[in-house]
Amino acid sequence: MATTVEQLKQAQAQNRELLKEIKALTATVQTLTEEVAFFQRQLFGKHSEKITDPNQLSLLADDNGVFTDPEQTGNQSETTVTTVVHKPKRKRCESVDPNLPIETTVICRENLSCDHGHQLIPVGKHFVREVVHQIPGRLYREQIFEQTYKCAACETNDGVSHLYQGTAPQALIPHSLATSSLVAELLYQKYALGTPLYRQMKAWRRAGLILSETTMTNWVIKAATIVQPLYTLLHEQLLTQPYLQGDETPFQVLREVGKTAQSKSYIWIARSIRLAAHQVVYYTYSDNRAGKTAQQLYGDFTGVLQCDGYSGYNLLGATVTRVGCWAHVRRKFFDDACKIKGQPTITPPVKLLDQMFHLERGWRDLTPTKRKELRQEQLKPVIKQFWQWCDQAVATPKSRLGRALTYAQNQRSMLNRVLDYGEIDLSNNATERNVKSFVIGRKNWLFATSPAGAQANAIWLTLIETAKANGLDPRQYLEYLLNQLGQLPVFPTEEELAVYLPWQQVPDKKVWRDQEA
């Protein structure tokens, strides 16, 4: 009898162990299934975080889609629910800048006689159509001479020739064919249009200029040293602002001291908030992602910084108040919502997060004071519901939902701070768009050969994105800077540089205005 009881206890213990093992294996299978769905969506899904199901927003009966500005850095790939939508036929969207020059063409008859042989007399003209022509850019050679003069009177008096000559402006790059217009076009093609230098070589050759990739690379780096004082001043101006946003993205640099060519380096971005009077978008290169780089980037900054949950920002001092990004949180829960066959399922946290963004979209143009007031009245209860759901949710730590919950809970205090600052947006998407500008280029350049090249990338992207943020045409602004800064002393003063800051320029509609701004 005792043996039978003992055997029964052993069998029950074995059953308990088997049940634990089955439970663990089930959780593992579920986690792996989610991973497979996630990677399938990364590889084959659409680049969007929108959910197009018209029934998704039962919390908001008057709106069918609230998350209109998803984060896009070029690395993620999300899918949307496939629905059959009969869209109205779009009208052709064609418009012309009214400041474009106009040339009039009048088509005359070849035969100026009527059917009876009488002479025809012009009585007017009627409009047929308007079209736009494109004239490709052209290159021309400029040979610069300095006119020489002599004083005949002085020579008559003392018998000695007194010669004088004009003073040519300093060359942009000594002993080089490079000019401000040529380098500005090269930079615009690379950094604004994402065309790497080796692909530009063929276009320059067809235009009549044979350049090597090494020559063009040297132009990019040497020209960057000319504008670097202004780049440094922009950083100083940025750190005087009370509210900033920041992010970072990996980049490969082949020849770094003490590192292999396959190792990761980083481009860090810090920028003004959307409501700042003076817009600055600042890029900088670092060979690491350590917190010491964040300390260097934000060393003299005292204010509010909106960023993601990366731990490197934890080393910033007490003078910096960190605010979280709700778009990053939504992305994590969106990944969980897509765990079944890569198709999004409308989950409670996604509903609540979409409601937050819907409210924020309606307050976008309000003053910071009014927006803070409305956040306390309307946004705060929704955030409270979100945290209540998170506190009650149960998920395995390695599942998509578990990771989303951990990410959100670790930043709970920083995410809630958005209620305290009406100046800060709900998300860090503005910085993410600047990251995307770099990522588009990175997909084409692939890497930088040297740290000098990587830092030159950061300098030119800073000037281009800052120009765009201030409503300037980046191509024209680069040429203007190269023309002017190239003639300044080697160590220009802050007063000499300040006049070239983008917000000091008065945009002319024909020259400066950036049509994309």
UniProtKB/TrEMBL annotation:
Residues 462-487 form the Transposase IS66 C-terminal domain. Residues 175-456 form the Transposase IS66 central domain. Residues 32-103 form the Transposase TnpC homeodomain domain. It comes from the Bacteria. The keyword Coiled coil applies. The keyword Coiled coil applies. Keywords: Coiled coil. InterPro entries: IS66_C, Transposase-related, Transposase_IS66_central, Transposase_TnpC_homeodom. Residues 1-42 form a coiled coil. This is IS66 family transposase.
